[in-house]
């Protein structure tokens, strides 16, 4: 059974979120949830 590895990446800069998402997904095998602010992160948590 494969364990789902999930992480939330919160940053107000879209470029940083995009690069982080690609890096975490391709290299680390993580599924990422992206948020642009703390408030958005709390809504998605």
TrEMBL record:
Top-level taxon of origin: Bacteria
Name under which the protein is recorded: Response regulator
Organism, scientific name: Corallococcus macrosporus DSM 14697
